[in-house]
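hi! just following up on the protien thing from before. the input was this:
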Amino acid sequence: MAYAKSAVSSQQIIDAAIRVLARQGYGGTSLLEIAKEAGMSKGALHYHYPTKEALIHAVLEAACNAVQARAVQAWSPSDNPFEALRRSLEELWATRAERTDEALVVAELLALSLYDESLRPKLAEFYELGAEQIRDYLDKNLVSLGLERRISLKLLPRVVIGILDGLVMQAFVDPDAFSADEVVDAVQTIAISMFARAPSA
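and the predicted 3d structure came back as:
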């Protein structure tokens, strides 16, 4: 009897895979374990995703989308651009530091992309979307205050993301190294220092 494909069962598999990958990592995850987590047979899982690689690509897209959706909410309009920048940085840090299943999967597959080039395009898109959000916010809000960029707008948001990602990896291995407030203070100071007061006309 053929197993009927459905969007529900596909999502059930992806959700189960995210939970197992977050718990055990890529090397410790098998399709059988994912099938058990999803409450279905390995054959049913294979019907949706014939290989582990096919499933991993679907999982990466879902995890990136979940993290990205949360990050989008961080950039809310405000009458005070500096306060809004701080709130946004707090949310961007929390998105990384809270170790949600999706964030752990993105980090795991980012490490795997050192060896698996097929994962790189989706991760590159993920980083570009994140950079675009920061780029738009800084350009619209800080430039509106009469500030000029000291470095290119193409690189500036990548620097902010690099600092956040680098610090969160250190926080994973040494949770007492610094507090969330210290991180946000430092990143906000660095971000603002990349702008200078425009000369008067």
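The chain has nine helices and two strands.
Residues 17 and 52 are 10 Å apart (CA to CA).
cheers
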